[in-house]
Amino acid sequence: MKTLIKSSLTAICVMALGSGVALAADTVNKKCPISGKAVDGSKSVKYTASFCCEKCVAKFQKDPTAHAAKVAKAEKGKCAFSGKAAGESVDIHIGVCCGKCEKKVKADPGKFLAKLQKK
Ligand SMILES: [Zn+2]
Ligand SMILES: [Zn+2]
Questions:
Q1: 72: left (phi over 0), alpha (psi -120 to 50) or beta
Q2: What is the 3-state secondary structure (H, E, C) of 62-91?
Q3: How many domains does the chain have?
């Protein structure tokens, strides 16, 4: 019995390590933009933001939710800060509380990114 528990624990550890990359996705928000509940770290929606240069990328990455509305409204292929043609992109992850919200956010990530705007 003891051996059985030990081996299944090992299996769980290996599984956790294997999916560690996906779980580690840093979400830019702590609360689900739909329900307002705490974000489930294993569920998020990717959003790719585009910028003209490394400087703008750094500015955004430093505090994504401070620029969320601007970035969400940026024209496709244009930098949200300068309006110049974008050559750099950053993937951010919008955290959600459950699979239902994940689907809703996935349908229109920009709309929900804008809702994350820091006031
Ligand atoms: Zn720039
Ligand atoms: Zn939810």
A1: alpha
A2: HCHHHCHHHHHHCCCCECCCCCCECCEEEE
A3: 1
Specify the pTM. Answer: 0.77
For ligand 1, the distance from its centroid to the CA atom of residue 17, given in whole angstroms, is 37
Q: What percent of the chain has pLDDT over 90?
A: 76
pLDDT digits (tens, 9 = 90+) for 47-62: 999 999 999 999 999 9
Residue 68 located in a structural domain: yes
Mean pLDDT of the chain: 86
15 in any annotated domain: no
- Domain range for 61 is 22-115
Q: Report which bound ligand comes closest to the CA of 37.
A: 2
Bridge-based pairing of strands 44-51 and 88-95 is: antiparallel
